[in-house]
Amino acid sequence: MRKTFLVSAIFAAAIGCAPLTATIAQGAPGAGWHGHHGMAMGSHMYDKLNLTDAQRDQIKQLTQQSFSQAKSQRQTLREARQAYESAVPGSADYQTAAGKLGEAEADAARARVARQADLRAQIHQVLTPAQRDELVQIRQQRQARMQQWKESRQQNPSPPSASSSAPSVQ
Length: 170
Description:
By secondary structure, this protein is mainly α. It has one domain. It contains seven helices and no strands. Helix 1 crosses helix 5 and helix 2 runs antiparallel to helix 3.
């Protein structure tokens, strides 16, 4: 159940990035690239690479192609989710729909990872060797910051919320 929910949440987040593609398509340099994690392997990182206009255009085109290739997969998943939601719990149709939804979500997750890997490789080819090196450094710095954050959270855990520590009334 958790795995199905997690895959659904990740896929829903990916679908939620659709406005990013539309914003980038409007042509503003760097528009839509800030704060949108995951799209084009962390596209916000590209602002630090001093990309040429030609590189930005090429990356934008690659990202849009990757997004459009996923359209039929998203439609299949949407249909499976609708069939599951419309089925009556406890019925044979419900179990069948649940199984099909699980399979559709697993297929979508595999396809998404493969598409992202392909996109990342294509974008890597667009970058100059110096930009590739800079991207590696940016990623290493990001990982170091994440590790520091995790360690600080372990050393200073947040206090439990007031509602969870309140005694229960019977």
